[in-house]
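Entry 14. Structure prediction run on the chain below.
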Amino acid sequence: MSILPDSYLTYARRHAGPDHDYYPASPIVDRAPLTLPRAALLGLWVVVPLEFFPLNPTGQPFKTPGAMQTPYPDLRHYTTRDYGNRVGAYRLLKLFGKLGLRATFAVQGAVAERYPGLVRDVLADGHNICAHGWDTDSLHHSGLSVDQENSFITRTLDALHSVSGTRPDGWISPARAEGFATPARLAANSIRWFADWAHDDLPTTFQTQEGILAALPLSNELDDWQILINYTRPEQEWAIQVRDAADWLLDEAKRLNSPRLLTLTLRPFVSGLPYRIKLIEEGLSGVLRRSDVSVVGPDDLLNLLSL
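Output returned:
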């Protein structure tokens, strides 16, 4: 006999499909075929976060992956992260130029404020940017007031606009953390797309109280931090996993007559290290050598949704 009250087993949001109203149940195999640029069967979307890690994070409501670990001042981890913006990012830019790959750089407001030259160099190389929140210690969560969260959003967009001359219309939250109200507040601030949720392999329409957002798929599992740092796997395995994912997705696209997306996150302080960059190049080159692959960006993915 249960000692729990009956109310414990009652959940008002329980119904067929997802337990929210952002998007309906929609198995990927039931959707109409899409058309990628150059009629490719596999689209490759590469995202590069440019992050600022405060030396004295509050860690509220949690410490973001990569945050300082040892007692203040944790200069070992701080300078390692700073190396990414000073050195690793430029190593990735050079690699992308060699491969002819255009990436999306997710830029935090604090980076635009502290490293405006880096943001300009990214744009000069033909890459696009999106907003990535203020810094890694300014996390979005349901404990924030409306004014606090809107301040994070507008401050970030203003900082990026001051450097780039354009107000970004895309967003990835720091640590991909959100509160219940975050999507609606992004939409209210003229954000067209975000990539915090990992619920699909294709773009989906995301309904909020403030209008429609495009939810762009960005894999957690092929994130360099996840594989190389969190799972502590060797770089060779990352390259193999990227190749295997490309093989599977291409085969799936051919069988179902509908393109697929391969999405990768590469952090400058992780993938931009000299002993990793060769394997990063091998993994990306192995995908790009395939005739049915096309590099895509947010605009291409928004076009799939006619947004």
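The chain is about 40% helix and 15% strand.
Filed with the rest of this week's runs.
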